[in-house]
Amino acid sequence: MPSTNQRRWARHRHRRYPQIIAVLTSFVLGTNAALPQVDFDRMGKVAIAGSFAGLDLYSSDGGPSASFDATTSTIFLRSADGGLSPIGSTNAGGSVVAGCLLGDSFYFAGSFSSVSGQNAANIVSYNPSTSKFTALAGGGLDGAVEAIYCDSSSKSVWAGGAFHGPSSGASGYSGSVAVYTPSSNSWAPPGFGGLSGPVMSIVSNTDSSSLLFGGSFLTSYQSGSTTPNNNVTSVSNPNVPQSSGSTPFSSSLVPFPLGGAEITAGPSSSRAGLGDINAILCPSGEDGPGSTWFGREGSYNTIIIRNFQAMTARGIRLGNTFFDGQSTTVFCVTSIPDNRVLTLRYNVPGSSETRTCSDECPLSTDPSVAFQDFVFEADSITGVLINLKEWAKDGVGLHLLQLLSDGSFASAVSSDNASPCYAPGPSNAHATGSWSQATVNTDIPATVQTVLTSNVAVGSTTSPSVTWNVYTSASGQYEVYLIVPGCINMQDCDSRTSVDVTINPGGSMSPVTTTVSEQNPQDAEVLVYKGPLVPSTPDYTITVRLALAANPSGQGVGGQYTLVAGRVMMKLISTDTSSNGTSTGGSNGTATSNSRRGFGIYEWPLRNSPSNVNATGIIPNETETSLTTAAFNLYSGLGNSTSSVSGARIESIVPYTSDKTFLGGRFTLRDGTANIAQFTSGALSALANQGLNGVVSSMVLYGSTLFVGGSFNSTADNSVSLRNIAAYNISSVFNATTSNDNKQYISGSISMYLKYGADGAASISNGESGQPAITPLGARLDGSTVSTSERKRWLLSLRDILAPRQSAGTPLPDDEAAPAPSVLGGVFWTNTTTSRQVMIIGGNFTVPGTTTTSLAIYDPSDESVVGLQGNQVDGVIRTLLIVGSKLFVGGEFTLQGVQGQSFAVYDLSSQLWDTGISGLTASSGQPVVRSITSISDSSTTVIVAGSFASAGGIQCNGICALDPNGRTWTALGSNAGGDIETVSYAGSNAEILLAAGSLNLAGSTVYIAAYTSQNQSWTPVGTLPGPVTALGVNDRNQSSLFAAGQTSSGAFVSHWDGSQWTSIDLPLSASSNITQLELVPLQEDHESKSIIESNRMLWISGSLSGSNFTRASSALYDGQNLYPYLVTSSASGDAGSISSFFHSFSTFDFNRRKFLAVGVVILISIALGAGIVFLLGLIGILWALFSRRDDRSFGQDTVVEDDDSVRPSSLLAHVNAAARNTILGTPKNDYYVHKGEDTIVDDHARPSTAGSQPAAAMAGGAVTAAGEHNALTPVTTTDEHDVNRPAHARYSFDGTGEGELPLTSGQQVVVLNDQDPTWWFVRDNATQREGIVPSAYLA
Known about the structure:
87 strands, globular, single chain, 6 helices
């Protein structure tokens, strides 16, 4: 359970919030010192990506401080991480006690006259998009508002409190309740007029079909008791869709499960995904392929449904298709087997008009009409034939087809019960005793039914039984029938007897038992109950039980009775549960001594609301519900007089099921029940220990635990000590929870101001004075949907505040949330067409004004974002990799035309998706790809890792190798698998692959494992406390690894020294989530620590919070100190997160270049020049001497041809150029700086190991991995030989020598310098690598 600084905000005006003062721990945190100077430029182009809308460098003061007037009430928005942001304050002395969300607006209520300078009386709306408060119609309400409820179904706001009505005029209002409609900006009294006293609570019942009001008010009902059939609370399955083409009656008819029926349609369309009639029986997708059926274009079509058993059908539900503009316009329905055209009755959508049709029935072509219900009257049928006669555009089509029952039904044979559409599960039956299954003929020719039979000894005192749990979608007036097979067909008439059938109507009503004779010769439908039914939640079932009658009829055969259990059927008569035809009627008036009084509770149905009700007068009996009895019980329990209820009130109502409701407030009943009670089975009763000894002001249910808040310090019997908040196990007792005597605490950031706005990505480079320069993404990204984590919600109850955080066990923690717009990964790539370096980004976003989703190319030069050509990704992208011109994409997505899910390859040259690579599959659900890497710097093999079972039919659990050229998959070893979060490489040649996450290695759980290609096996890398979410390798040193992850107690970071893991004690809170670790170079060294060298630091990315800093999205660790570095925020003010830190150089040197003073360099250059001239003269003399000796040996002149193995060039010219560049700062000739060295190395005269290779032998040169750079980095020149022209390789060149660039035949390059006739300096724009190649190999 969260700590006490996450309590709900106070409802009482005298409570104020103390400020929080952070206590620093002994751990050294570098927040007061200057930020470390990271050398971003040494990594090439650098960028960050994540879920954020703004970012800035971390500041120890957290930004501008906010001040609050203690005499006002300030409204905060509480983000998902617990942070609070102020959005406005009331006038002095004002208070805000309630709020709710409707659409895009928040509504706040209390006792105030203004909020943020906006005059508003006690209620106000707030628009987060404009950050403005707006007064409601008439300025507000004329008294304090204590409770509000936002009803999304009617798009209205219900307000309750101590007021009469709107401030502008309350004529027609009875007081305490008013309803606001935003669309018309108007107030109206509720349908029941109002209530006689203050309203403190407004909540919905378990299925949102009615509102429950709690407070301090009296209600009066007509004298005379109601029958059990009147005590009904409306209940309906909220998953049943609504449509203007249906009615509450037809919506309550349960569709027949047609999975076992014979359904044919023809002729059907041949279009992909549109020819399967079964796809529209219970469609889960949008209108289109896979969820829509089309008939053949231009053809009259027929749909036949045959169930081959009797069905008590009542109607047909049709939903038109609008895909590609195609629709059905006219149809008719014929019953089977009697071949009768049925007369259909339907509502005209958008009106209350009812019409009938038969041969030519219209089907609405209005896209706003989800479906239409057409009801009919028919005896038992076995099927229907639907003729689709006319259509729009190319032909007929449907998106939904259902055959509606008479109400609901169930068979005694459980295997015959299938789950209807929208139901939580199928109806079922449970038998006790010995029963046998039998198949018998019915009275309908060629049909059979399956029943259960049981033999019972005559005179037996025990009986076998069958109990049906019948799925019933909504409460209403029903007729319940027992379907009894005829004894003639079963040939058991003499042994038949009578049975008792017991119905449990629900809604706190008493069970009803009817005795039924089963001695009927023909099949019979026997009425066993007529009245209201209230299904239990959340399974929405009604219970019916059959057993031997208490006084069975008949003599039996051979001393045995035969019992038969077939089906039960519930025929819907009316959806009006408040009417039973026995009401005494009468109009509302004033209370009399003969009226029955209730207190503190009132229930009002939102569906089928009664008319002419005034809840401040005499309320008709027929409007009573089960909770009306609770109000009666409260009134009598408090003393049965108006004076005895004075001061009592109901402040909180929590419905648990349709038959159990918890009530809290200020009251003490005559039986000792104090301040909290439960109403169940029609009676009010105390909780354990008689309740609580103080006022209950708020309750929230979480699972089977009821959290209770208020002003109390023990249970009512003083047996359990409490401190204002308690947890009550519904099946147990009260437990104390941590609390703090009426003090309300606020934790998290109150306000934060960020300098840069960016939609999920930004570039970082070296700036002035060693500080980073941040360049936000210059283009706008949007979200296709608004995720739950993005929505700013006002939390008024303990449900969200006290809900425990999810804890991670052995499995890998849930993948990082990616609320749109989010950028989760990126790579740099040079476009060979434009020669521009661009950023390819992936995540969860859309590009405004385009169809581009989740994957795009961002060009910093013009700040444009464009999508890839071809089909767009549908889902979330988490990782990207470029090898040559191929872009590898991974995440959680589908892509039309590509095999499998969550992985795809795109050719940036041809701008096409590769459709020839076999896809990934998961053992269940959708595969997830979290990491794509190249196995080494010199290999084209790509490693794909995540959560999946196989790739291309190859069993490789969570990690697999792909050869993109051969399009083949290969498993890595045979003894490892699991959920992989990240993959890294270690070893001087990157020969060790490290996989981190939650792996199964030879039957054991490990969190990091190493794989070597030499022995093709996996070995565990030490023992860690939990799954790993990030892994960093220190300059490929296999004896210096950093790992971060999650355990049940929170985040951890550890270091591997080659033999063991050592935990690093960082001041991170348990809620921190680390997504990436990487060692980064520095501009200035720090003091060397034991595990991190002085020239680097550990970059930590994710969503971080600590004991002595509020929040950060990245931090730096030097081996001793933790420096929060970057802070991000979402558009709503919530804490953001950084998912990816990526750069254009795949390898870089941590050593900084050191330069001598200019004068010293000049002297050294002169000395070198003189020395080299002398050396060249000496070499010339020696060469001449040896040449003459050779000439004398051969005795003839010898022609010496050019040797391509030696690169000819002017060495002196390069030395002079180097000196000139050092002195003047402008390079003139081509030279190369060796990475990581302090000296300038000339390489023009180096013999090449490849220069003399024949072209055929060099054809096997490999394409290097994306982002790889040679050990030599070119320094550009400005002489006449510096060119920038495109060329392509005629032959392949292995390029294994230092400074050489590998080529493959046909590869596109750019010639940068052609001064030397034999060796040219070129760049591969696809990988940004540069180097020298034989000029003869280019064209």
